[in-house]
TrEMBL record:
Its main location: membrane. This is Microcin ABC transporter permease. The chain crosses the membrane at residues 9-30, 138-159, 171-197, 227-250, 285-312, 332-358. The lineage of its organism: Bacteria, Pseudomonadati, Pseudomonadota, Alphaproteobacteria, Rhodobacterales. GO terms for cellular component: plasma membrane. It comes from the Bacteria. It is a multi-pass membrane protein. It is found in: Cell inner membrane; Cell membrane. Belongs to the binding-protein-dependent transport system permease family.
Length: 369
């Protein structure tokens, strides 16, 4: 197993490198880079696309040249730069590093990332690492609690449905979870706000934020209660659609195991149904469900919905990434991409380890051999 883990860890390096190369290459052709964004702000237009007053040819040249540092100071290809001093454009290019060739910029970025130095945000005047750490509590909260709730509800429900397969309980619960799966998360979030956050009916839960304004003045129990009070609605909204897949996966896994020969043998020996279910079937049936927990959590964590965060006014990584992409704030874009990519690859290794932990009979080295 040690050799397998070592090989997987060594594969992390070329995989991350490939991801960064592809994405760095793609942004070279995206119109409206940081220089154009800064020019638009300097001219008071507030949006880079407001500066696209030139011809279609001008806009087309912009997409390649400003990202490559190929347009000279005061060049007409910087459509929004017309009327600005050439020295101002030169200063912008030096500040954002676009006075260097793309290859040099990419190699410098890799060297910095190897030391976990993600640089400064172009437009937020803050370190990228500090920004990520600042927004991470919201994303961790949504990812952690939505995953735990999904598992705590779906696994017992899936086992019950397998035991009661074909009964009335199985039928109406299947209908309920399919309806829940079909409801878009953002629509359900709005419904929760209308019903329980003072939209039109009851003012039970707060409308925005992860904590109250008087958080620092609360006792320890008060802080815990305030935190769960704020996170309740967004967590429910983010979790509602995940019940269906996990519940049906659990049910089908148990049904497959119930029909196997070793279950009939255990029952023939006179073991109780509970002992057969949880002493023999459970470990085999839950292999795929439990071993996938790290991947499920990281998937929810990465996929922290920008819509859910916006609806509940939560300032998490979803909004940070979206705003950085819109503003072409590349240090944040590439910094979060590198961190999330690294975490995703490590979690993939942890998922394999979970398989071995749940069922020691699995040997990845022998399979590869």
């Amino acid at each position: 197993m040690g050799a397998y883990i070592l090989r997987r860890l060594l594969l992390v390096i070329p995989t991350l490198l490939g991801v960064m190369i592809i994405n760095f290459t793609l942004v070279q052709f995206v119109p409206g880079g940081p220089v154009e964004q800064a020019i638009a702000r300097a001219q008071g237009q507030g949006d880079v696309f407001g500066s696209f007053a030139g011809t279609q040819g001008d806009a087309g040249q912009l997409g390649g040249d400003d990202m490559r540092g190929g347009a000279g100071p005061g060049d007409e290809r910087y459509v929004g730069a017309r009327g600005l001093p050439p020295e101002f454009i030169e200063q912008l290019e030096r500040e954002y590093g676009f006075d260097k060739p793309p290859l040099q910029r990419f190699l410098q970025m890799l060297w910095n990332y190897m030391r976990f130095d993600f640089g400064e945000s172009y437009f937020r005047s803050a370190n990228v690492t500090d920004l990520i750490l600042e927004k991470m509590p919201v994303s961790i909260s949504l990812g952690l609690w939505s995953t735990l709730i999904a598992y705590l509800v779906s696994i017992p429900l899936g086992i019950r449905k397998a035991v009661k397969d074909g009964s009335g309980f199985d039928t109406w619960t299947s209908g309920a979870i399919i309806v829940a799966y079909a409801i878009p998360a953002f629509l359900f979030a709005i419904l929760l706000l209308v019903l329980f956050a003072g939209g039109s009916y009851w003012q039970i839960f707060p409308l925005r934020g992860l904590t109250s304004d008087n958080w620092d003045q609360l006792s320890l129990l008060g802080k815990i209660g305030d935190y769960f009070w704020h996170i309740a609605l967004p967590t429910i909204a983010l979790t509602i659609s995940s019940f269906a897949t996990l519940t049906l996966l659990t049910k089908n896994s148990f049904l497959d195991e119930i029909k196997k020969q070793y279950v009939m043998t255990a029952r023939a020996k006179g073991l109780s149904e509970r002992r057969v279910l949880y002493g023999h079937i459970f470990r085999n049936a839950m292999l795929i469900v439990i071993a996938g927990f790290p991947a499920v959590f990281i998937g929810v964590f990465f996929g922290s919905s920008i819509i859910i965060e916006t609806i509940f006014s939560l300032d998490g990584l979803g909004r940070l990434g979206f705003e950085a992409a819109v503003a072409r704030d590349y240090p944040i874009v590439f910094g979060t991409l590198f961190i999330f990519g690294l975490m995703g690859l490590v979690v993939g290794i942890l998922s394999d380890l979970m398989y071995v932990f749940v069922d020691p009979r699995i040997d990845f080295e022998r399979r590869e051999g």
